[in-house]
Amino acid sequence: MPKKRSQVNDIDRSLYDIRNSEQEAERLSAGLTPQIVREISKRKDEPQWMLDFRLKSLEIYQSMPTPSWGPALDGLDMDNIVTYVKPNTSQQSDWESVPDDIKSTFERLGIPEAERSYLAGVGAQYDSELVYHNMQDTAAKMGIVYSGIEEALREPRWEELIRSKFMTLIPPADHKFAALHGAVWSGGSFVYVPAGVKLDFPLQSYFRLNARGAGQFEHTLIIVEDDADLHFIEGCSAPKYNVANLHAGAVELFVGKRAHLRYSTIENWSKNMYNLNTKRARVDAEGEIEWISGSFGSHVGYLYPMSVLAGRRSRSSFTGITFAGAGQNLDTGCKVVLAAPETSATVETKGISKGGGVQTFRSSVVATPAARDSTVSVSCQSLMLDDISRSDTIPAMDIRAKNVDIGHEATIGRIGDDKVFYLMSRGVSEEEARTMIVNGFAEPVSKELPLEYAVEMNNLIKLEMEGAIG
Amino acid sequence: MQNSFAAGATAQEAPKAITVNAMPAATWGWLKMNDAEAAVPAHLASAPNAARLEVEVNGKTVNPTRDADAFERALDSAAGRYALAQRLGAGDAAQQPSRQSATPEKELDATALSSYQSGALDLERTYTPARAFKTGMGHEGFGYLSEVSRGPHLIAAPAHASVCATLHVCGAPGAAAVGAVDVVASEGSNVSITIALDSPDEGEGIVGSAVRVLAGKGARVSIACIQTLADGYTALDDTGMFLAEGAQASVRHDVLGAGASFTGLSADLRGDESRATVNVNYLGARSQTRDFNYEITHRGRNTESNISANGVLAGESKKCLRGTIDLTHGCKGSQGTEHETVLLADERVRNKSVPVILCDEDEVAGNHGATIGHIRADQLLYLTCRGISEDAAEELFIRAKLEDAAIAAPSRAARAGIVRLGKRMFDDFEESLGEEIA
Amino acid sequence: MHSIETPGTAAIAAKPIETPGAAQAYTSLASPGAQNTALLDVRNLAASADDMQILHGVSLSIGKGETHVLMGPNGAGKSTLGRLIMGDPSYEQTAGSILFDGSDISELSPDKRSRAGLFLSFQAPVEIPGVPLLSFLRAAASGRFGQGLRGRKLRARIEELCDELDMDPAYLDRELGVGFSGGEKKKLEMLQLLLLAPKLAILDETDSGLDVDALGVVSRGIDAYRESCDGSLLIITHNTRILEHLKVDRVHVMVDGRIAAEGDASLIPWIDRNGFESFENASLSDPCCQAGDDINACPARTPSASASSLPAETR
């Protein structure tokens, strides 16, 4: 385990809360206008089609209503959000060239150390731009491409591919914040794994939003060709401010035939963040997408990774945990579309709410007529840690295929007094006992994470549980 | 327009549509599950004497009265004992700055509740139990039914009395036939109501019932509604219940006929130890649509609810079932369970299910489960090995549903309706069944 | 382990199975003089599931009113044979024929075979929620007995059978198989056997051999079936206790998807004492067929296992 990380054990959240002074090179004015969109595009020296795409997306954004079914978005005023903040550096491929304050932030988060010990490649974004991107030579020799998406867009070799995929899984008209993303997206990673290539070590992108009142809109595009295999890790955090920050990223994943992609996220945004992120995967025949998702931060979260099972016998599994503490309303879950025969999907989620926080599991399972002989199993458990919090479960199923079997179960409850008593009778303090039980509750998720992240998650839980007895 | 249907309206008349069965906590609009639209053609006249109500109190037949305000008066007085919520739930001012008083600096410390979540808080905070009363179909649906019914009949059960009632609503071609009943079940009384929504004659029209129930302390109310309409009809069956301490409600809905049916039930478990049990049996065939909204709100302590739905969908039928267990703040010790089993007997059917649990209390248990499936290969093999072909197997499931309903039918009229419906589908239905129950 | 190392024995052993003439001779060996009146005549049946060959040329013939027993170790293919005769689509019939009542039923779906007079009991009947037992029985019986047995009369008959099998008639209104105990499931199978009165009942009792209660139910069912109609029986088992007090006409022993031995009822106590090991050995090292040399040692005639391969004490 990286040393810096272990500090989470005994210090508070301040690790994530380190704020650097905002010595950014550039900060566009707040708000959202065609002028701002043009400014962003100009700075990126991107093809004309992309500018057109951005402007079209902006129009869609302005014509779409704000979602009415989820957590209130009243506190998010787009006129106050700065959509583009350029850090005071260009993208580097060695940490020594990264400015000291930014480098030290990532060092405290343990990124360079993780890179040395077990990652095959790392991308680090700071506000609107990538500040670091590097991949080990071995991975490069296998033909794997892992770079900034804007960088790839400037290469004729990738431009066409990106153009053919970009925002096709998440079209701007999908929802208001997808449109916003289309208009002001900036930064993010591009990964291409050639057919048959299996990467043993994960790639990781880390997103850090430092600027007050800013938005982060990175776009992640991953293409895993037939028979290839990749594990991708995404991490994110931000220091806390008393104004709203916004994250509206987009993740588009293309999983080829018999290919496998595992996408792990530990989301730990600060509690002034509106996290309106969209993630989607399209899976071809016999391919598999695995989502591992931990949501801990944010003031408001709307997050429902979606799997589109487009090929025969393709598979999806979603394992997620959401922990909503004071002041948080985290509306999370997943969407599954079964659109081919003999597909299968499993969903296992855990939700915890505490201290007045609200946690909602929301899902949709849609089996189209093409999805004959498919199976779905959904299991959703929620834990209430006190009586001032809230936990809702809103799963929807729409089935119109032949021979589809859907099993769904959900439970809501609290920690059994008998369990706490049992542990306490063996000499464990009440706080420890509860933490232990909550960790056990989260175990199905943490066991799916790389060790370092499992430890981080347990620490986050421990942090949240401190002072939970009252 | 979602869940719209042509029955009851010819193309040239613009059918009036009402929005019914909205689930309390909405989800994505693109799923088209949040609510339903029922076409209620304006030209349909209110059928005179369509509803026949027979009431027996302690074994003696009594004449039911029409008194539109009696229920509200009784509810006001019964509900007056329950104070507005003092302790509030998530996002409450006691824990954090309320949304109204938040300064910009503190605004992000308050939980950003969804419109449903804040609405639920407001409801507990500012609505008297009488004002919070609602039916499963919602105001628009209940309003329509009330209007067509020309006011409710009152079934008043004196304390500890035993009351049996049957409401027979008979559909008439080209008309809207609705029976409305208000039930005031005093302390310790036992009320059993059978409702038959039936159409002896084929045709097009609307047949419905609107039932409001106030179950006093320890009262037991059971309602069985059997709907056996011909395909030309639309069924609208709406119920709202208020349960005081220790009251028990048991509801059975058999939705067997009608080209389109809408069923709503809302139960307010206000009193401690009150309990509601709901059994739903439905059958969808041909191009029928079925739409359901069940809402059980747990407010008292140690309350219990159980929703169990069991259905068979065949042909090109469509169904949407919303079931919400709402464990509100303060309902400590309560439990809500919901289970749905759907058998899809044809690949052209469309099934939608949304089993929702809303939970604003920690010392509670909420469970739901759903099993949606087709006839499994091993089940089909077993049936075929006993001489039942694949087509016959599908028929068996439909027939079994009808036979089961006939066996459980609480009244002769209801049974006759089921037999009539069965005969439309199976030539020998009456013969095999009729002899048996004769 | 005795075995005679004879080169090429495998080919010889396979011969009677693959040569129609030999199979015919073998059939007559199984049921002397029965080939013309056979109710069920399985010839050279080969079958596979998921591209795995399970049965390798099985022949077996059952005459009207006869009781046959199919024995053999676990995994020998006994249940597969039963399922194949009934037409389970998860097995593919790759060769051979199944003649029932004079016509080839290989192409018929299971419901047609059932209506032709075949019955297969299931070791574990499925659960079918939403279908009351009575509705199911009515559908199964529908059209079989003409106008004579339907409606009220059918129910009366079913209740009579419940009584005979000591089964609570309340089960009739319960969902098929749901929440039934093992014993109740067995009763349910026997109830259907008696109600449908098939010409041939294949009772797959591979798993019930150890359960005393289930054994009692099955025995009672078999007795009632034999009494009520002169039906034929094929009982599949690897435990001989179920066969006590039963008049068995013929015993077939299956090993590795082949009929390894056949004989009359006296083979049962012999297997009871000696198990199936000798047949398994025989089938593994297949000595040349020398049946007849020492036939009294083991009451089996076998096309593939010679007497000399049987344990010494049986000679």
Automatic annotation (TrEMBL), chain A:
Pfam families: SUFBD_core. GO terms for biological process: iron-sulfur cluster assembly. Residues 207-441 form the SUF system FeS cluster assembly SufBD core domain. Belongs to the iron-sulfur cluster assembly SufBD family. NCBIfam families: sufB. This is Fe-S cluster assembly protein SufB.
Automatic annotation (TrEMBL), chain C:
The keyword Nucleotide-binding applies. It comes from the Bacteria. InterPro entries: AAA+_ATPase (IPR003593), ABC_transporter-like_ATP-bd (IPR003439), ABC_transporter-like_CS (IPR017871), FeS-cluster_ATPase_SufC (IPR010230), P-loop_NTPase (IPR027417). It holds the Pfam family ABC_tran. SMART domains: AAA (SM00382). Keywords: ATP-binding, Nucleotide-binding. One of its GO terms (molecular function) is ATP binding. NCBIfam families: sufC. Belongs to the ABC transporter superfamily. Ycf16 family. This is Fe-S cluster assembly ATPase SufC. It comes from Slackia equolifaciens.
